[in-house]
Specification:
InterPro entries: FAD-oxidoreductase/Apoptosis, FAD/NAD-bd_sf, FAD/NAD-binding_dom, FAD/NAD-linked_Rdtase_dimer_sf, MDHAR3-like_C. This protein is of the alpha/beta class and 434 residues long. 22% of the residues lie in helices and 30% in strands. The protein binds flavin-adenine dinucleotide.
């Protein structure tokens, strides 16, 4: 098979790839200089839509509606945008071998691609219960959600198993968003997770108590503190029930599993330095191999604000790291220098009528403020994290765009806090003193 050469190649066609392409185009590209090689069959899109609007019973989001860069209020890059900008979008093509020494990539079909500069944007894959050998985990109608194909399979099952029973395994982002959207689709929904409360990596028990209460008020049953240990299926191989460690059995027509992800770094093992499960980069997203960059979920990068090295699996970082890498590549070609990446962590989620944002670092003591009664008509509350007398993290449910901006400013500025009780009383108005 013929070999194709590009000045720049991006492996992966997800969020980071799309934002990188836009940044390249901003700087000016010659036709044929840039290729995006993606396993998926569609042009880069805003992945968070898959667990939200894509599954809505009415007015569901569909492509081309949520191609990048609409998620951050930018221009929607339709498939033709890439050809109009001289960018080759090589879809339905999985790279199965990457040889960084010879700068050669090989696809599953045997095509080879060479490059001068490579951007690794392969993202993450889901952790599958079969990886743990959970009995029955290969039954039909047990779903995972990462790519649009996964979402399409779930949409088909929602249609065929109308008004049935769903068990959601996992109490993280996917678990919470999927439970809500399946309830909106009129399913009988039970969430199961082993932790004492949902989203334990970010939520305090107080924050979680609000969401668990709100979900319960909306008819979602929650079984926490127990593990799923197996599945039963019928003669067709369709899942019928979920077995819990405490001996109980939950009936299920559909199971959705959201137990975490794993960065896709396998292709580059032993070729690049790794750290904290990702590919180690500098503040410009260059890896230990010159001319090879890693962005988005796969990158472990210097988090300047906390003098730490971290990996972040969130869309905002995928977008910003991609832009930073391209800016750095273009600057180095012009003999210029840009500032190091200086990222303020930002996570968000939306479900039912709820919407929260978090900025900063969730370390230290916490104070809550506002109305966190799950039965309120319009709950609005927040939490601050304080360490060594400084406010480092801020969470807000139900905030307006301006209020969300305010908490992001607080997390960036890290103001001194002396009196936690006073801070709890002041809540959002604390920001007006800064
Ligand atoms: C359902 C869902 C909902 C989410 N919701 C939120 C949210 O609300 N807020 C938030 O902050 N974050 C959310 N995230 C996380 C966010 O989407 C990711 O952090 C972001 O997409 C990472 O971007 P990326 O470009 O690194 O990887 P991805 O967007 O995952 O893109 C990776 C791409 O690489 C391709 N690929 C992988 N290996 C190969 C290969 N060998 N050859 C060719 N192509 C390959 C994949 O097919 C994919 O197209 C969500 C994720 C999911 C799955």
């Amino acid at each position: 098979m013929a070999e194709k050469h590009f000045k720049y190649v991006i492996i992966g066609g997800g969020v980071a790839a799309g934002y990188a392409a836009r940044e390249f185009a901003k700087h000016g590209l010659n036709p044929g200089e840039l290729a995006i090689i993606s396993k998926e069959a569609v042009a880069p899109y805003e992945r968070p839509a898959l667990s939200k609007g894509y599954l809505f019973p009415q007015g569901a989001a569909r492509l081309p509606g949520f191609h990048v860069c609409v998620g951050s209020g930018g221009e929607r890059l339709l498939p033709e945008w890439y050809s109009e900008n001289g960018i080759e979008l090589i879809l339905s093509t999985e790279i199965v071998k990457a040889d960084l020494a010879s700068k050669t990539l090989t696809s599953a079909a045997g095509a080879t691609f060479t490059y001068d500069i490579l951007i690794i944007a392969t993202g993450s894959t889901v952790i599958n219960l079969s990886d743990f050998g959970t009995p029955g985990a290969n039954a039909n109608n047990i779903f995972y959600l990462r790519e649009i194909d996964d979402a399409d399979k779930l949409v088909a099952a929602i249609e065929t198993k109308k008004n049935g029973k769903v068990v959601i395994v996992g109490g993280g982002y996917i678990g919470l968003e999927l439970s809500a959207v399946m309830k909106m689709n009129n399913f009988d929904v039970t969430m199961v997770y082993p932790e004492p409360w949902c989203m334990p990596r970010l939520f305090t028990s107080d924050i979680a108590a609000f969401y668990e209460g709100y979900y319960a008020n909306n008819g979602v049953k929650i079984d926490k503190g127990t593990l799923v240990v197996g599945f039963d299926s019928d003669a067709n191989g369709d899942v019928t029930s979920v077995k819990l460690k405490d001996g109980r059995v939950l009936e299920a027509d559909i199971v959705v599993v959201g137990v975490g992800g794993r960065p896709l770094t396998k292709l580059f093992k032993a070729q690049v330095e790794e750290e904290k499960g990702g590919i180690k980069t500098d503040g410009f997203f260059q890896t230990s191999v010159p001319g090879v960059y890693a962005v988005g979920d796969v990158a472990t990068f210097p988090m300047k604000l906390y003098n730490d090295i971290r990996r972040v699996e969130h869309v905002d970082h995928a977008r910003k790291s991609a832009e930073q890498a391209v800016k750095a590549i273009k600057a180095s070609e012009e003999g210029k220098v840009i500032d190091e990446y200086d990222y303020l962590p930002y996570f968000y989620s939306r479900s039912f009528d709820l919407s929260w944002q978090f900025y900063g670092d969730n370390v230290g003591e916490t104070v809550m403020f506002g109305d966190n009664d799950p039965a309120s008509a319009k709950p609005k509350f927040g939490s601050y994290w304080i360490k060594d007398g400084k406010l480092l993290g801020a969470f807000l449910e139900g905030g307006s765009p301006d209020e969300n901006k305010t908490i992001s400013k607080l997390a960036r500025l890290q103001p001194q806090v002396t009196d936690l009780e006073q801070l709890a009383k002041e809540g959002l108005s604390f920001a007006s003193k800064i």
